[in-house]
Amino acid sequence: MESAQVKPNALAGFADASAYDKHRPSYPASAVDYLLKAAKVTGESGARILEIAAGTGKFTTLLAAREEKFEILATEPHDEMRKILMEKQLEGVRAIKGYAEDLSSVADEWADAVIIAQKIAPGGVLALIWNVEDYNSEKSWETATKWEQTLNDIIWSSDDEDPRFRHEKWEELFDDQLKSSPLTIQSADPLFSLPIGKHTEQWTVWLPSKEAVWERFHTISHIANLENDRLQKIKQQVFDALDGPDVEKNEEGNIALHGRTVIAYTSAIPGNSLRQGG
């Protein structure tokens, strides 16, 4: 396997980690509760949680605040994002540099939940969670408003083709474990149970200005990576969309932004080798 590394687009796009931490959303409490129940760690005092791609600690912060007092190992390959996470000094959290492709620094079967590959104990649960704004959704998703669809069109028209949630490729990784041939028979046994459990919660947040909407939109890595002229053109397109008649505002003039939290979870099948193939 090639040595793990952060893709250049992500390295540059998330270089301003403080802006990411400031403008990206946290997760709804009800969604966190649902995920932890699915992961079978609700009420489990001191349960070990391995968080992959912890970023600046948006989700880690919520885990650390739980009454279960989880023991949390947060891995994040991006140095600037991991720095923000470490500066938060969250109780029960140890942050290390780590890649989803290479977790050799983590003991096998160490974690109880939110884990991958050989690090998951037999019968343990892998849980995935995404915050997905309407404007950053799949092409098949129907946005709540026309202006958010306009922003979604902008994102797709400037796509750098690095796979993200909106590309709808992640689930194929689980489906592919059932495919076998004479050349793959040694690793054909599925590692995770199917079908994958899924849960979605829709939400609305209120942002104080068009500039605040732009600042949040601008944290999307491939937008942040655009050159100045192209970036300014897109900013103007966003502001023009926010002048549309379907932009919902409250009495304070705050702008409604719509999205959803998506949870997926599955358990490791006991008895199958999770180290097979490397």
Could you name the key traits of this structure?
single chain, 20% strand, 4-stranded mixed β-sheet, globular, Rossmann fold, 3-stranded parallel β-sheet, alpha/beta, 278 residues
Give structural notes.
By secondary structure, this protein is α/β, with parallel strands linked by helices. The chain has a single domain, classed as Vaccinia Virus protein VP39 (Rossmann fold, 3-Layer(aba) Sandwich). It contains 10 helices and 7 strands. It has a 4-stranded mixed β-sheet. The chain has a 3-stranded parallel β-sheet with strand order 1-2-3, covered by helices on one side. α6 (146-157) packs antiparallel against α10 (228-241). The longest helix has 14 residues, at 228-241. The radius of gyration is 20 Å and the shape is globular. The chain starts with 7 loop residues before the first helix and ends in an 11-residue tail after the last strand. InterPro entries: SAM-dependent_MTases_sf. This is Methyltransferase domain-containing protein.
